[in-house]
Amino acid sequence: MAEYLYQDALTGSSVALDDTGLARVVERAVPSESCHSLYFPGCSFINYAVPLMEALYQTLQQHELVDGISLLCCGKILSYEPDGEATRARFEQQLRERLAQSAVERIVVVCPNCAKALSEALAADESTASIAVVPALELLADVGYQIDREQAATLLGKPGESITLCPHDSCPDRESGDFARALRRLLPADSWKEPAHSFARSLCCGSLLRAAGKYEAADKLSQRNIEEAQEIQADAVVTACFSCAFQLSMTQQTLPVVHGLELLYNWRINWAQAGAWMKTRFLIEETEAPEVSQEESGRSFVALCDTTAPLEQNADEVIADEASLRDEEARMAAAILEDLETTDGQDSPSPKE
């Protein structure tokens, strides 16, 4: 099983993740003094698709769009834990301080929930109010990437066929529409039809209700979205939100549901098994972690700056293993990128005419 090693720019901790998201904090150091553009993949991406997360990180680095990465949670999920609002407020204050200390000017996000939560948290303090929050999909579209029509059809099990995609827009993106517009920029021309409800009028996928423990109501909302896709005779639902993709996939098997990055990178997430994978959220300090067991909430929390917790490996082992981990990372990411064209001598997703 492959492992991926990341040094978190905001905490300095080195974290090893396997390809299901299982995490080990292996070294602690000082955070980055300067990280002007920060890749912030978010918990859902970490949970469901570490190899894809790494491939996107390599793409962003190749185009000099990011300087570092942080695996931290955006804090939104803390609201659903005991004493949630107070815990979330403490975490957000720590997060703002770390972002200011690292001179972050832009956060590149993959998750619409992270985008909304971070934007609101940053606006609460003048030291971070000027930090921009930008969808990674928007940056990919800006530099010319687009999903290949034939590749998408093959990934969805319809090689050589003309497919129709139904975009699903997430609740936290309703106000800005940034993710909705970026997703459509990446889709091949004339490859999608709008459902009855989209953009600001989009229907919730049900994941918010699921996070609150209201499973039956969540599943009913999911089914309504699938019915709207069927009304336009879509071959699949495509979304810019991993939480939406998971929720819409786990409640039915009638219609495939994919994240736009799955189509762009030609790499399918096994949504049927994703729910069994790691559900860890990374926080900054132990004092922020909710006092609740994973059995109670289905989530566990790891404090990257908790100096009282033992490391999984000592520093010497980390130094010895880092090269092999990076070699394996490169191999796994290359497997995702191998079918994509080469641009300017670099293996990266490339737009196709």
Would you kindly provide a written description of the structure presented here, covering whatever features stand out?
- The chain has 353 residues and is of the alpha/beta class.
- The chain is built from 14 helices and 14 strands.
- The protein has helices at residues 43-48, 50-62, 84-101, 112-123, 136-142, 149-155, 178-186, 207-211, 215-231, 242-250, 260-265, 271-274, 294-297, 315-337, and strands at residues 3-7, 14-18, 23-27, 37-40, 68-69, 106-109, 132-135, 165-168, 236-239, 257-259, 280-283, 300-303, 342-343, 346-347.
- Helix 10 links the parallel strand 9 (236-239) and strand 10.
- Helix 2 (50-62) packs across helix 14 (315-337) and helix 5 crosses helix 7 (178-186).
- The chain is globular, with a radius of gyration of 20 Å.
Number of DSSP-assigned strands: 14
- Largest sheet, described in full? 4 strands, parallel
Order of helices and strands: EEEEHHEHEHEHHEHHHEHEHHEHEHEE
Name the overall outline.
Answer: globular
Task: Bin the helical content.
Answer: 25-40%
Tell me what portion of residues adopts beta-strand conformation.
Answer: 5-15%
Question: Which stretches are low in confidence, meaning pLDDT under 50 for 5 or more residues running?
Answer: 292-297, 313-329, 339-353
Distance between the termini: 36 Å
Q: C-alpha Rg, in Å?
A: 20 Å
The order of strands across the largest sheet is: 5-4-6-7
Overall residue-averaged pLDDT value? 84
Contiguous helical run count: 14
Structural class by helix and strand composition:
alpha/beta
